[in-house]
Amino acid sequence: MSGTRDRNGRTTSPDRPATTRRQFLRQMIGIAGGAGVAQLLAACGGQAPATGGGAATSAPAPAAPTAAPAAATAAPAVSSGGGKITLGSFADPAQDVLKNVFLPEFEKQTGIKTEWVEADYSGWFQKAVNDGQTKAGAFDVYVLDDPWIPQFAGGGFVANMEELGYQPDSDYVQAALDTGYWPPKSGPRQPGIDPNAKPAVYALPIIGDVQLLFYRSDIYTSGAPATWDDVLKTAKEKSDPSKQQYGWVTRGVKGNPIVTSFFVILHDFGGKMFEDNWQIAFNNQQGVEALEFYLSLLPYEPPGVAEFDSDQEGQAMLEGNAFAATMWTGWCRQTDDPSKSKVIGKVAFDVPPKKVDQFAKIGLFSAGIAASAPNKDGALQFFKWFNSSETQIKFAQAGGTPVKISAFQNEEAIKKARWLPAILKALTVGKPSPRTPDWSKVEDILGTWLNKALVEKGNAKQHLDDAAAEATAYLKSAGYPVG
Amino acid sequence: MVQVEAPTSQTTAARRRKLPRLPLLLLAPTALFALAVTVFPLGYAVVASLQAFRFGRPVAFIGLLNYQNLIADANFRGSLATTLIFTIAATAVEFALGMALALLLKDDLPLEGIIRSILIIPMIVAPVVVGIVWRLLYSSDVGLVGYMMQLIPGAPVSVLSSPALALPALILMDIWEWTPFMFLILLAGIQSLPQEPFEAARVDGAGAWGSFTQLMLPMLRPVIMVAILIRAMDAFTIFDQVYVLTNGGPGTSTEVATLMVYKTAFRFSQIGYGAAMALALMALVMALSFAIVRGLRADGQ
């Protein structure tokens, strides 16, 4: 194949170069195609056959949560079992205190070694799903974003913790604890789930995250805005784009970010995502009003919010460019950090404002014991120790965001983290994402159409109707009684 | 019958004697490995595409339903159209710029090595990093491009939140990243061409443009074909940069097909439907490749 003739496309052997070239091209096409499909299948290959052993069909655990409140400072009942547990997680600074301070402490107290394996958010989700599907047993504990719980519990990837011997106490923030039950304790149940199945604990909250209202106390001098109308009024009066001063900032990027921002307003306006029979409800009258209100804030927001994710939204607050926003609690500490914030002491926290209802969106860091965990006992010891009220108080005092009421109310912890009362208040009125494994698809559909509405600065009703039609078609194909 | 069978058996026996066993044995591991990494996943994808999945597990055999749904899926058709526009625009501009750069640098120039090294830097940067860098550039709050856009009266304040500009922005990033690839391949092709035909043309009075169109382009055809083919196939399956830069937005204006396959299979756990999409995409890549090969083969072979 070397020589001048080949490059010229003319050859002394008329048929050979053409055939070789064709073969070459076919090989390349084959390799490219094979590689593409192989990539897709790498993650889904080797699955165990469906066993029907998920929570949807398994018998509910007979045990009920204990009625007796645990003593807030009671020593956790932890046995020294030895061995090792592997905890897998997505990377997030909110877990630094757990990872760097409390895991070593757990090792010291119990003699159980720990290994922390983390990946980026999407990477960890795939890794955990693969481990759950294949029962590979690479992890003892999966750290889960709470919307993943329906898939992990329903798919049988995580174990029933009540059957393993865990009994949640009443010191938990109830709304946070409820996210770990499967089937869900309230709301509609997806098709195929026994309507009489008793909910059981499959995951526990480990870090209490929720959408808080962050507001500038030097702008809102008489306290947090009580209503959304107050937010709009202040934005109109005090925004000054020439000085990069904006009344509001939001995450507008398609998918989860914009849905999370809209979720709060939707529910505050009396709207909801689904009816009790899974019919789409976000495009009803309240939903349209909520989206119209959301769009009415646009003139008082930084330019380009349609591309804003959490980092840009948070930055607008820390730079002092925005007066208010609904953000995750991970940003609280940064507002008081002189190396990151230009508004030290000028940002306060509360539950998002009211319209018809007052609502906050829960987005917990949860964790469950892998159904294929090699050391289930060790994993259980970890939860008994870390989620004990005593450890949770220490966790809060060390800068972590707890999940126990006593920890939120601890004076010393509040001195170090003034936002803890606001988090507790928000968690108490909070709601999580809808409890179905199909939420991620519906969220993607809604997020795409919300983003379109934001870019077009209008057509709220039309875009919500389009989103509803698309989501309904999807739910119908997935077996939901809609349409 | 006996008369016919006897020579056949003899011929087969003779062939057996001629077949060297050692090379076959030595090739066997490679062949098995190739089968394992290409044929098995492909076969598995076909099987998966005929099944319905729940919680990431197959729950029912549904025949061709996933393919029927795929044909009716307006979002998938939209993502294919976006992918096709992206592929054609990016590959065409990269080819034109790559050829121009190759023509400029084909002769020995001072600092030629340094210039070439600088030119290929974008190509060796990881695609995810390219996506992050361009996201920062385009960003409306801290980006250079975003800042400059705000200086233009009437221009959209944000590139990545403008449905009209997001796809061109993506194409521009791809051009920046992959023009060096075209440049390198075309430069190697040009430098290996024989000089005699060009000298003869010059003696016969041919100009630079005539030499380029009448001699160089026809002689470079096989190189051009391979370069365009590789780039088109690569552009058709772009993923990392889109995932980082726009995640398909705003709306669905940059939702390329691979992103949709990824989300369907891995985020929504619809593995069967995702496999059907991946196979359809593979068939389209092959069809596109054949079309390119056919289009560039003037001799019809």
Describe this structure in words.
The complex is a heterodimer of chains A (483) and B (301). With 483 residues, chain A is α/β, with parallel strands linked by helices. Helices cover 42% and strands 11% of the residues of chain A. Chain A has 19 helices and twelve strands. In chain A, the strands form four sheets. A five-stranded mixed β-sheet of chain A has the order 2-1-3-11-6, with helices on both faces. A three-stranded antiparallel β-sheet of chain A has the order 8-7-9, covered by helices on one side. Chain A has a two-stranded antiparallel sheet with strand order 4-5. In chain A, helix 3 (96-110) links the parallel strand 1 (84-90) and strand 2 (113-119). The longest helix of chain A is centred in the first third of the chain and has 28 residues, at 15-42. Chain A is globular, with a radius of gyration of 26 Å. Mean pLDDT of chain A is 85; it is low at 1-77. Chain B has 301 residues and is mainly α. In chain B, strand 1 (51-54) and strand 2 (57-61) form a beta hairpin. In chain B, helix 4 (74-105) runs antiparallel to helix 10 (208-236). Chain B is flat, with a radius of gyration of 26 Å. In chain B, 39% of the residues are buried. The interface between A and B is large, with 69 and 70 residues.
Identify the notable features of this structure and list them briefly:
heterodimer, A: 483 residues, alpha/beta, 3-stranded antiparallel β-sheet, 19 helices, B: 301 residues, mainly alpha, 13 helices, 76% helix, 3% strand
Mean pLDDT of chain A: 85
Indicate the mean pLDDT of chain B. 88
Distance between the termini of chain A: 62 Å
Order of helices and strands of chain B: HHEEHHHHHHHHHHH
Please mark out the parts of chain A with pLDDT under 50 across 5 or more consecutive residues, or reply none.
1-77
Low-confidence stretches of chain B: 1-6
Q: If helices are DSSP runs of H or I spanning 4 or more residues, what is the number of helices of chain A?
A: 19
Largest inter-chain contact set: A-B, 69 and 70 residues
Strand order of the largest sheet of chain B: 1-2
- Estimate the helix proportion of chain A, in percent: 40-55%
Major pleated sheet of chain B: 2 strands, antiparallel
Shape of chain A: globular
Shape of chain B: flat
By DSSP, the count of extended strands of chain A is: 12
Give the strand tally of chain B: 2
Order of the strands making up the biggest sheet of chain A: 2-1-3-11-6
Structural class of chain B: mainly alpha
